[in-house]
Write a structure and sequence with these properties.
heterodimer; A: 150 residues; mainly alpha; 3 helical TM bundles of succinate and fumarate reductases; elongated; B: 110 residues; 86% helix
Chain lengths: 150, 110
């Protein structure tokens, strides 16, 4: 028996990662930096300013989403955070799932969960109704005191 | 740090999923949302939130360190110091957040 002939060592170039993985790898870093800004702002505005967590109720959310830029900020944050988190979880599944089968199952569950959460969250942000009414047209209890807004 | 990054990442991911679902209650009714959000204002959840913010700060600063170490040889050469900077920034962030948050939770204002 002779040892197999050694080929040239693989050069350390960017090409070692396939294009899709490479794209996600870059995305993970770029989205990470953006998320630091977005989430720090989110935490500061919601938990530090005003009365912190005790101020948060339906009217607080309605007040924020009355401004289009909070809708955009929250939507971008939702999208980037879910994709960043999903990609991170996907790395962990690849690292820790033992069999090909368990890996495929876990990745599928993760993918479905990500799509469901992104779609649900997007619908909530973009179809938000600050003054919801019941079947008779009366405002539901708990609507902001200024309802209806025009 | 590698383990810290993974553990905090997983914790934040699961919170994010729950957080999108609880926020989606604003489309059910104001009362449903207020009731669930009300439970976040209890002392127990107040402490869980503090833990969540701690996880986010740590994951954020450490993530920036990982990028720096990958990107710049200066950072690679000083990576031990950068780990200390991550912990220092984390400590400063928590020192700014924690007293105010605990006042909101335990202050009895709402």
């Amino acid at each position: 028996m002779t040892a197999p002939e050694l080929s040239q060592p693989m050069p350390r170039t960017r090409k070692r990662m396939n294009a899709t993985y490479r794209w996600w790898w870059v995305f993970q870093r770029v989205s990470g930096v953006i998320l630091v800004v977005l989430i720090f702002t989110h935490l500061f505005v919601n938990l530090m300013m005003g009365d912190g967590v005790s101020q948060i109720d339906f009217a607080f959310v309605a007040g924020k989403w009355a401004a289009w830029y909070w809708q955009v900020i929250d939507f971008v944050m939702l999208l980037l955070a879910m994709l960043h988190g999903t990609n991170g979880m996907s790395y962990l599944i690849n690292d820790y799932a033992r069999s090909r089968r368990s890996r495929a199952i876990l990745q599928a569950i993760l993918g479905i969960a990500a799509v469901v959460i992104i779609v649900l969250g997007s619908l909530v942000i973009w179809t938000f109704e600050p003054c919801p009414v019941d079947a008779t047209g009366a405002f539901l209890p708990g609507v902001p005191s200024g309802c209806p807004f025009n | 740090m590698w383990v810290v990054h993974r553990v905090t990442g997983v914790a934040i991911f699961f919170f994010l999923v729950v957080h999108v679902i609880d926020t989606s209650l604003v489309r059910v009714s104001p009362e449903a949302y207020n009731e669930v959000i009300g439970s976040y204002k209890t002392p127990l959840y107040g402490l869980v939130e503090a833990g969540l913010v701690a996880a986010i700060l740590l994951h954020a600063f450490n993530g920036l360190r990982v990028i720096a170490v990958d990107r710049w040889t200066w950072a690679l050469r000083h990576q031990r110091m950068l780990v200390w900077i991550v912990w220092a920034l984390f400590a400063v962030g928590m020192a700014g957040f924690l007293p105010r948050h605990l006042m909101h939770v335990f202050g009895g204002a709402a």
